[in-house]
């Protein structure tokens, strides 16, 4: 299966960093948060990625074009012109497809533009700004058990997000969040897709290819009409994740993730 990562937004809520580079390239522990997300998936055998680029997308392309060089022992022999000898390559077995999905395209539109690279199989969708210790294998097994067109990972953070009403494992509706509410929100691990600027979206989904027909064009916001329609049709299941989840919306979130990294990082599942 492939994992689609939404990496094209402007990241306006963390402008202190995003004015220099796209939000997914902001570093935690010396590595872009995008790298952390990819490591989470690859820990479960998902190594084929489709990254939806937009704002400063060239930054992401340059990162991967030099990835092998930056993770290898290298000899430059200037006596023979510009000969380069790679001695020991320490790169992951990833296939990375970088898709220019437009500067102002919405989340659903970005996934739609990536469709030519997805084939006819189900796929994961997540945001390029959140990490979690979600068990991807269990998420996929739940999706297969429920037999719906889409599965959304939901979490229960404190505070400021809209919530999903869940009944018998399915999402029935979405509603805005009250301060006193501690309901389930979209945690962003979708076997399918997730939104960058939708209140409460964390980033892990699973989708069947048929969901692409719900995405009309560049203006489509995945987290609004498509997911709401799927919920109304009884085709959106909810995988309840009770472990760690954290998005990086603000500088404060980044600082929190940096501290957690120093303390062992609960999402660092690839070393467990």
Account of the 3D structure:
This protein has 272 residues and is α/β, with parallel strands linked by helices. The protein has one domain (2-266): Spore Coat Polysaccharide Biosynthesis Protein SpsA, Chain A (Alpha-Beta Complex). Helix content is 24%, strand content 29%. The chain is globular, with a radius of gyration of 19 Å. It starts with a strand and ends in a 10-residue tail after the last helix. The relative contact order is 0.18. Residues 192-202 have low confidence and may be disordered.
Question: What can be said about this structure in brief?
Answer:
The chain has 272 residues and is of the alpha/beta class. It contains eight helices and 16 strands.
Notable characteristics:
272 residues, alpha/beta, Spore Coat Polysaccharide Biosynthesis Protein SpsA, Chain A, 8 helices
Annotated CATH architecture: Alpha-Beta Complex
Kindly state the mean pLDDT as a whole number? 88
Task: Kindly give the count of domains.
Answer: 1
Helix/strand-derived category reads alpha/beta
Which superfamily, in CATH terms, is the homologous superfamily? Answer: Spore Coat Polysaccharide Biosynthesis Protein SpsA, Chain A
- The residue fraction in helices comes out at 10-25%
